[in-house]
UniProtKB/TrEMBL annotation:
It comes from the Bacteria. Residues 100-405 form the Glycoside hydrolase family 3 N-terminal domain. This is beta-N-acetylhexosaminidase. Residues 1-31 form the signal peptide. Residues 46-65 have a biased composition (Low complexity). InterPro entries: GH (IPR017853), Glyco_hydro_3_N (IPR001764), Glyco_hydro_3_N_sf (IPR036962), NagZ_Beta-hexosaminidase (IPR050226). It catalyses: Hydrolysis of terminal non-reducing N-acetyl-D-hexosamine residues in N-acetyl-beta-D-hexosaminides. PROSITE patterns: PROKAR_LIPOPROTEIN (PS51257).
Amino acid sequence: MLPLRPRLAVIAAAALLVSGCASLDAGPDDAAPATSSSRSEDREPTSTPTPTATETPVDPDTPTSWGPTVGEVEEARELVSTWTPEQLAGGVIVGRFHGTDPQEPARMVRELHLAGVSVTGDNVVDEQQVRTMTAALAAAAGADGRDFPPVVGVDQEGGYVSHLRGVATEFPHFQSAGLAIEADARQGRRVTRAAALTTGLELRDLGFTWVFAPVADVTVGAADPTIGPRSPSQDPRTAAQAIGAAIKGYDDAGIVSTVKHFPGHGTATSDSHDTLPVVDSPLAEIEAHDLPPFESAIRQAAPAVMLSHLDLTAVAPGVPASMAPEVYSLLRDDMGFEGVAITDSMGMGAVAGRPKPALQALVAGADLLLMPVDTAVTHQVVVDGIASGEVSRERVEEAAARVVALQRWQARVAAQRPVPADVVERARAASADLLSAAY
């Protein structure tokens, strides 16, 4: 394996994020990053240092570089330290469910203590059913003793990956953001940020707390069978600008965004839904082509990053990225990301046949396991893994605490930003503006 070249010199310079206004005009990607108005100025790194006798304790209201305050992180750590193995196991799983009965995912959240669930198009009937379902999920989390919302997530990227079709406003493919930026960088960033803002607000109005977007993959065009127009661009810098603007918009909306699919699915020539794609790019090529949009996301305080199921031969040959410690080290140690790391769906063909994939991912560094094939079975596997020592309790507590802290951040920011009564009209206008700017 090639050594991972440290990239913290670049990231650290941007880690002290400066608060910006909630204007829809995102600045250049390489400018001093602006964050949503809920973030305070002179941001500090997310890690919470242990004060020495000569150091001043960190103010608990100091924001981290990924959203929650230092105090929220510490409170989350204290809380999960009291959890049973069953609660801990649930706290690192975003489950899948079948059918459209709102009480089924609510039961799973309540009985398995799940962090939350992912809603797909197969779970959706109409707007009223969606609202009933998300309300039932919030109530189930409360019944489980939580004072923070569950993860209620959905793939709502725009284009054909939009699981709320017929319920939420339809937006064009994210490729439109890149095209708009290439046509007029300033205007393109503005309409991209507005699209993310209104998407997030509309999702919040429907009861969602997470959106599994934006896509940060830099596509290679026709040879890319999976991402295609879901990618903002074939140009890394254009993609980076689109991602930076989108992250700001989602943050402004008070919803948790999920940058995906680290470290970049755009060069894979097979589909990880079916098989484990092999990416033979040298590390230097990955750094130049695939990582810039993720670097932009981290500079803009991305709260969550989704790990891909790719075999990166230059980093961890033969192991899916979502289960490779080396890939999590690239994300955290080299790039400085300290937020929630979530896997891509654990039901995908690239990983579904591997032995105990959930434990492999947790041990490697995942904080959330997305949509395992069988949620209840995976929950028991994690409980048993904690008991046997296959995964340490300390590792699972670290993961669960990040999730709890992020959900408290989401609740706090959402409370500060009521959804406007005309959110649907705003979303439709933003969708039209993005399409117009792109074409």
